[in-house]
Amino acid sequence: MELSGKVALVTGAARRVGESIALALAARGAVIGVHYRTSAQQARQTVAEIEAKGGTAQAFHADLQQVGEIEAMISEVAAAFGRLDVLVNSASVFYRTPFENVTERDWDTFLDTNLKAPFFAAKFAAPLMRRQGAGKIVNIGDSAGVKPYNNYLPYSVSKCGLIGLTEALAKTLAPEIQVNCLAIGPVLAPPQYTPAQIDGLVRSTLNKRLGTPEEVARAVVFLCETDFATGATIVIDGGRLIA
Ligand SMILES: NC(=O)c1ccc[n+]([C@@H]2O[C@H](COP(=O)([O-])OP(=O)(O)OC[C@H]3O[C@@H](n4cnc5c(N)ncnc54)[C@H](OP(=O)(O)O)[C@@H]3O)[C@@H](O)[C@H]2O)c1
Fold first, then answer.
1. How far is the C-alpha of 134 from the C-alpha of 131, rounded, in Å?
2. Which label site among 22, 24, 184, 215 has the fewest CB atoms less than 10 Å from its CB?
3. Is 149 a catalytic site residue?
4. Rounded mean pLDDT, 112-125
5. 131 C-beta neighbours (distance < 10 Å), count
6. What pLDDT, on the 0 to 100 scale, is given for residue 9?
7. Ligand 1 contact, 186 CB (< 6 A)
8. Neighbours of 206 (CB within 10 A)
9. Beta strand residue intervals within 101-232, DSSP E
């Protein structure tokens, strides 16, 4: 797909990895829907940064744990820009959940945000993409979806499910829409991580460094511009899975 003039919605695009993905797609000429939930000011900054470089963007609010809000957001994007070509499901929750302490609320938060929301976003985006005869969906996963992290069981299961969802959606939405997943390794540590924890992440990779949001964003651009890949999960983790 040629991205210039196409419309891309990136969830969780106000900051961190999602922001880099939005900026990279905008740099290829795509019009960007910048989704946010709580980071309204950062979303406005992402929009301003895209506009300062000559691009077009607009911020859209939704709590992705509410299916009705996902549906409303997709409708608002279609109303604002007239079409939707690319959906990047990047928004996610990530926090430590030792097995004994996992509550039903934790389980629902992880599964609703990281798995159910990407499904419903795809469900509401697909008719718009099919109407145009083409579309791309990129799910941002985690290497934990392949090899679960200790003490992050619901998160790991949600990301494992995202790999399965990617394959099932690719099959369901073929041949017009390609659906792929990136299973990424450590890129931006959570803000509360100590230097020792960050050092542990660095040492866990073969590359002996964290990835960058720009490296993830380049892979998203690749998956949007390539038409033959579908149902694939590409691991970009500095070799952590095989270390
Ligand atoms: N960072 C890493 O090193 C790393 C490693 C492996 C995989 N990943 C994956 O890469 C993606 C991006 O990572 P990240 O670290 O940039 O993510 P993040 O900072 O943990 O979260 C991204 C955004 O998700 C949004 N979000 C959370 N719950 C939401 C909800 N209920 N409704 C709407 N939005 C919600 C938040 O938006 P607001 O701020 O607007 O509330 C947040 O800014 C995620 O899918 C993550 O699992 C990241």
1. 8
2. 215
3. no
4. 99
5. 13
6. 99
7. yes
8. 13
9. 135-142, 177-184
**CA Rg value for the chain:** 17
Gap between the Cα atoms of 115 and 157, Å rounded: 9
Lookup: tokens for 116: 């159910």
pLDDT of residue 79: 98
pLDDT band at 66 (very low <50, low <70, confident <90, very high): very high
Right CATH for 7-238 from 3.30.565.10, 3.20.20.70, 3.40.50.720, 3.40.50.300: 3.40.50.720
Does any ligand 1 atom lie closer than 6 A to the CB of residue 109? no
Instruction: Please give the distance, rounded to the nearest whole angstrom, from the Cα atom of residue 86 to the centre of ligand 1.
Output: 18
Q: What is the pLDDT of residues 21-54, one digit of tens each?
A: 999 999 999 999 999 999 999 999 999 999 999 9
A 10 A CB-CB count for 130 gives 13
Q: Which atom of ligand 1 is nearest to the CA of 62?
A: 33
How far apart are alpha carbons 138 and 122 in whole angstroms?
10
Distance from Cα 42 to the centre of ligand 1, integer Å: 13
0.90 cut: is pTM over it? yes
Ligand 1 atom showing the smallest separation from residue 37 Cα: 40
Amino acid at 115: L
pLDDT band at residue 193, thresholds of 50, 70 and 90? very high
